[in-house]
Amino acid sequence: MKRIAFLGPEGTVSQESARYFFAEGAHEFVPYALMSDVFTATAAGTADYGVIPIENTIEGSVKHHIDLLVESGGNLPIQAEWIYPSIQNLIGHFDLTSGTDPFANIRKVISKDVAIAQCHDFLRSRLPHAEFEYVSSTAEGVRIVKESLDPSYAAIGTRMSAELYGLDLLAENITDHDNNYTRFILIGKDKPVLKPADCAKTTILVTLPEDYPGALHQVLSAFAWRRINLSKIESRPTKKKLGNYYFYMDIEMSLDTVLLPSALQEIEAIGSQVRILGSYPSYSYMAGL
Fold it and tell me: Which residues of the chain have pLDDT under 70?
């Protein structure tokens, strides 16, 4: 039985998406308090794989998780990616004294900062008087609300977390946008056995040579004339000195081709450093995985 590490406690979107992705076969899903713990457990072999939310259609890249992936030193390559909807709900203790307005007595909303940002319009219109408390995950917020026994506390989280902690769904699907999807990656030392995917991707890090005017243009040209599509390019600081950056790139092509390895060789020929973070199958929720 494979052990799958995710950001806990139980009931997070990460767990919900992992259960969806690993719907077939026997797996043990293990929660960890911090995302850094997910990486550590996977690197140490305590878990076989780690589930990492890396990007959201509303909030964009999860930069801290990208940095953790980079800092893993390439020892935990990306083995797969999938897309999963982030459906958030207002969760709490149903208050019979609130009358016709079920939100009238709610004075505090507890959740992860990203989840609160994704529900900005709902919170502003229905709970303008409430204060926010930020915690490490949506499920952690639900757990706190459960233990508080206070009907003036509410959390934002998944339907799974409400069921796990025996709380009420005060309002369903409160995110601002219907197309609120999160991209998850699976990290691990060994390739998992997965069904065929419609497409493959490769993720690389490129560090440009110093004192080389037009180096980024040269890098992008190596992909452009070969008609290789980059689905993402993002600069991140190397943390070595001010103004020193690397480029994180998602490429819509597998390394098991002729074109991509030759493009990487051309990039290295101009003095750029290339590190491959993974070449992996890509699955879509909309296509039913």
Answer: 95-100, 285-289
204 forms beta bridges with 249, 276
**What's the chain's average pLDDT?**
90
Cβ contact 282:183 at 8 Å: no
Helices (H), 207-277: 215-224, 259-269
CA distance 63 to 268: 26
Burial 152-179 (b: 16+ CB within 10 A, else e): bbbbbbbbbbbebbebeebbeebbeeee
Q: Is 39 helix (H, G, I), strand (E, B) or coil?
A: helix
In 3D space, the residue among 83, 84, 102 whose CA is nearest the CA of residue 93 turns out to be 102
* Domains in the chain, CATH or no CATH each: 2-86+180-187 (3.40.190.10), 89-171 (3.40.190.10), 199-283 (3.30.70.260)
pTM for the whole thing?
0.84
Torsion of CA 83, 84, 88, 89, to 10 degrees: 170
Q: Are 207 and 238 in contact (CB under 8 A)?
A: yes
